[in-house]
From TrEMBL:
Residues 307-342 are annotated as: Disordered. The keyword Cell membrane does not apply. Transmembrane segments: none annotated. Its cofactor is heme b. This is Dyp-type peroxidase. Belongs to the DyP-type peroxidase family. It comes from Metallococcus carri. Keywords: Iron, Metal-binding, Oxidoreductase, Peroxidase.
Length: 342
């Protein structure tokens, strides 16, 4: 059967909005009804701006899923985001029942659709975190580095983000983890460009990856290139966006990572916050503090329009993520790293 997926894979947007929403107790039926309206509401705005590529992806958190459709129907890897506490830095887990991820060439259509959704939310829930992201020069984050270069493309992107035969009832869905990071620009700007490049693992001006023999063990890139037991690289799809306010000096990166198995993103996060080996944590965290953290399942459009939750049999579901660090990655998500520098 052909499944219509949400448009998780999209070219880097020029404008974006990230809304994290909580749903009130007792408003479950209304929330479920709102979810069935989302694709229609998106068309109402998108049709009027056909050249702007307005894209709305909706994610549902584990607790809300249980309230709407029953715990026994949970997608295989859906669970609440778990705090990750390293010796120095912590990735907090914060509240969130729904994620609305809006992307567009202009901010106007994002704002219009967000406003329509917010209006429908009255009596159902609240927007508890809202970030308006913008495109910075050359696809750079506010640390000044090009962000997104090594994202998978084409078939590799589809394989990286799409739930497949491992969970047939929810095939075509995806998982997404979001975190709002604020940068300490004073400390960052005090570093020389060479030191900053050693934090990221790539050159700043021309975005070239450092050779393996010079790239530090605690560079962001080193800790985020991970492989399965057979040496295949495990990938996620990121669409981070800068945000900030000059008046209060806030500079941030809104991290958003889609994956067919959130265990891949969680392993990257453990590498970043705890370190690999433990203690060798990601140096980017000395300049970037995570203020939020949440995990959502993004079902197919077919599911959103006409939910058909499927109860699992009596076999216990394998989530939350296994403590042995194994990843349960299907063959669909495998790709061998084929770059020359490593
Ligand atoms: C403060 C937040 C973050 C910033 C500013 C940031 C920035 C960057 C930059 C500049 C790159 C290099 C260019 C590229 O390939 O995109 C990169 C790569 C990458 N980042 Fe991040 N990142 C952040 C958080 C995260 C988090 C939380 C994860 C995972 C959970 C992550 C996963 C990755 C991955 C997988 C790569 C590509 C590695 C490769 O294949 O070479 N990033 N990031």
């Amino acid at each position: 059967m052909h499944v219509v997926t949400q448009q998780v894979i999209a070219p880097p947007a020029r404008a974006g909005m990230f809304l994290v929403i909580t749903v009130d107790e007792g408003a479950e039926d209304a929330a479920a009804a709102l979810l069935t309206e989302i694709s229609g509401l998106t068309r109402s705005v998108a049709f009027r701006v056909p050249d702007d590529g307005l894209n709305c992806v909706i994610g549902i958190g584990a607790h809300l899923w249980d309230r709407l459709y029953g715990e026994d129907t949970r997608p295989l890897h859906l669970h609440p985001f778990q705090e990750i506490r390293g010796a120095k830095h912590t990735a907090p887990a914060t509240e969130g029942d729904l994620l609305v991820h809006l992307r567009c060439r202009e901010m106007g259509p994002c704002f219009e659709l967000a406003r329509i959704i917010a209006r429908r939310l009255v009596g159902i829930g609240q927007v508890v975190d809202e970030v308006h992201g913008f495109k910075f020069f050359d696809e750079r984050d506010l640390l000044g580095f090009v962000d997104g270069t090594e994202n998978p493309e084409g078939d590799a992107a589809v394989a990286a983000v799409t739930v497949g035969e491992e969970d047939p009832a929810y095939a075509g869905g995806s998982y997404v983890i979001v975190q709002k990071y604020l940068h300490d620009m004073t400390s960052w700007d005090a570093l020389s460009v060479e030191e900053q490049e050693r934090v990221i693992g790539r050159s700043k001006l021309d975005d070239i990856e450092m050779a393996d023999d010079v790239k530090p063990a605690n560079a962001h890139i080193t800790l985020n290139v991970i492989e399965d037991d057979e040496g295949n690289q495990l990938q996620i799809l990121r669409d981070n966006m800068p945000f900030g306010e000059v008046g209060d000096g806030t500079s941030g990166t809104y991290f958003i990572g889609y994956a067919a198995d959130p265990g891949v993103t969680e392993r990257m996060l453990r590498n970043m916050f705890i370190g690999d080996p433990p203690g060798t944590y990601d140096r980017i965290l000395d300049f970037s503090v995570a203020h939020t953290g949440a995990l959502f399942f993004t079902p197919s459009i077919d599911f959103l329009d006409d939910p058909h939750p499927v109860a699992r049999d009596a076999t216990p579901a394998p989530d939350p993520a296994p403590s042995d660090g194994s990843l349960r990655i299907g063959s669909l998500h495998r790709r061998t790293r084929e770059r020359g520098t490593r």
